Amino acid sequence: MKYDVVVVGAGIAGPIVARNVAKSGYSVLLIDKKPAIGTPKQCAEGISIKAFEKYDIPYDKRFINREIYGAKLYSPSGYELELRYKEASGVILERKVFDKMLAYYAAKAGADVLARTEALDVIRRDGRIAGIKAKHEDETVEIHADVIVAADGVESTIARKAGINTYAPPHEFDSSYEYEMLIEGYDPDLIHLWFGNEVAPRGYVWVFPKDEDRANVGIGINSDNPQTAKYYLDKWLRENKIPAKKILEVNVGVVPVGGFVKELVKDNVLVVGDAARQVNPMHGGGMAEAMEAGTIASKWIAKALEEENLGLLRNYTTEWWETDGERLQKVLKVRKVTEKLSDEDLDLFIQILSGADAEKIAGGDYGEVIKALLKHPKVILSPRRIKLLRELL
């Protein structure tokens, strides 16, 4: 088989690249090792409503469970911070359908799509990578391509085989554990997030409603924690007297929350999405980040093919780092500071921050918020808090 581009991995980034490059008139093959694209999910399934228009994705009720109008944050001692909007700010997806539909959009744009096709290695010819070896329906195949895109997740085989350094220490990953279950008592128009060093070390517990009485209930904690994410989630459910007896699905995953890949291109191989650690380090969400990276990568792939100059692929690294990479580096600074916060600090900040402040901090646009916090009496009286906040300026 011979294509202009082969994309390995049909999560979020891969189909975006495949669709965009196919629209530009080039031959594209999108492969995924799973027999059913989108299954199993490893995601809380929440995404900003702005992503649909920005990345040209139909707002299709087939993969939208519920519109969300904001968020509610809970401190260790029970203080609450609510962000509520008049119009929907986000949605809870059905990732099993959403991922498959993204692959469908790529196919409609002209890309070939093969499920149950696992990338095994790269093919080298005359000192360069000329394609990949894969197993399709238990048969080994060779797929030759001018450009290879590694969108094959956290443990990216293709990035590693191509010699791209994707190493990050264990502390730069979170372990997550999630139940899709029946649960009542929480406003289904909001997502709910609980923080605390005894609740979810370095992370948070979430309830993302999918129906009035059904939600994704999960947790993310630092992966080098001596206890498991399941331990903390089950503990939280017990302490809140929430019976875990109506569990419809269990999902386990590892989420990169740092360790962004420095060189996103090596010769004719590009790495995108989770494989490149392109995830928001503060909340662990990576769908919008994968869409952005896929959009930038596909632009430079099309340009490189059009001008028959694969050296142009390196501009993907440059553009991503100058835009989304710079933003995510700021968010990473916030994450490193929040790791040092005590439960008393978390109580205080949730009491004195506004919803808009919390949104800016999570997005990396926090300069003015930090300056305002530094003027608060309870911050001024604490040299430790002043030092932590100044680390962000």
Automatic annotation (TrEMBL):
What's the record's note on cofactor binding? Answer: Binds 1 FAD per subunit.
- The record places domain Digeranylgeranylglycerophospholipid reductase catalytic at 174-255
Question: Which Gene Ontology cellular component terms are annotated?
Answer: membrane
Q: What other remark does the UniProt record contain for this protein?
A: Reduction reaction proceeds via syn addition of hydrogen for double bonds.
> Which Gene Ontology molecular-function terms are recorded?
flavin adenine dinucleotide binding; geranylgeranyl reductase activity; oxidoreductase activity, acting on the CH-CH group of donors, NAD or NADP as acceptor
Reported EC number(s) for this entry are 1.3.-.-
Which Pfam families does its entry note? FAD_oxidored (PF12831), GGR_cat (PF22578)
Top-level taxonomic group: Archaea
Q: Name one GO biological process term.
A: glycerophospholipid biosynthetic process
Annotated PANTHER family: DIGERANYLGERANYLGLYCEROPHOSPHOLIPID REDUCTASE, GERANYLGERANYL DIPHOSPHATE REDUCTASE
Catalysed reactions listed for this entry: archaetidylserine + 8 AH2 = 2,3-bis-O-phytanyl-sn-glycero-3-phospho-L-serine + 8 A; a 2,3-bis-O-phytanyl-sn-glycerol 1-phospholipid + 8 A = a 2,3-bis-O-(geranylgeranyl)-sn-glycerol 1-phospholipid + 8 AH2; 2,3-bis-O-(phytanyl)-sn-glycerol 1-phosphate + 8 A = 2,3-bis-O-(geranylgeranyl)-sn-glycerol 1-phosphate + 8 AH2; CDP-2,3-bis-O-(geranylgeranyl)-sn-glycerol + 8 AH2 = CDP-2,3-bis-O-(phytanyl)-sn-glycerol + 8 A
Which annotated residues bind FAD? 13, 32, 43-44, 46, 95, 119, 274, 286-287
Cross-referenced NCBIfam families: GG-red-SF
Taxonomic source organism: Thermococcus aciditolerans
Name of this protein: Digeranylgeranylglycerophospholipid reductase
Q: Which UniProt keywords apply?
A: FAD, Flavoprotein, Lipid biosynthesis, Lipid metabolism, Oxidoreductase, Phospholipid biosynthesis, Phospholipid metabolism
Q: Where does the UniProt annotation place the signal sequence? A: none
Identify the pathway: Membrane lipid metabolism; glycerophospholipid metabolism
Q: Which cofactor does it need?
A: FAD
Residues annotated as binding a 2,3-bis-O-(geranylgeranyl)-sn-glycerol 1-phospholipid: 327, 363
Tell me, what does this protein do in biology?
Is involved in the reduction of 2,3-digeranylgeranylglycerophospholipids (unsaturated archaeols) into 2,3-diphytanylglycerophospholipids (saturated archaeols) in the biosynthesis of archaeal membrane lipids. Catalyzes the formation of archaetidic acid (2,3-di-O-phytanyl-sn-glyceryl phosphate) from 2,3-di-O-geranylgeranylglyceryl phosphate (DGGGP) via the hydrogenation of each double bond of the isoprenoid chains.
Q: Does the keyword Glycoprotein apply?
A: no
UniProt lists the family membership as follows: Belongs to the geranylgeranyl reductase family. DGGGPL reductase subfamily.
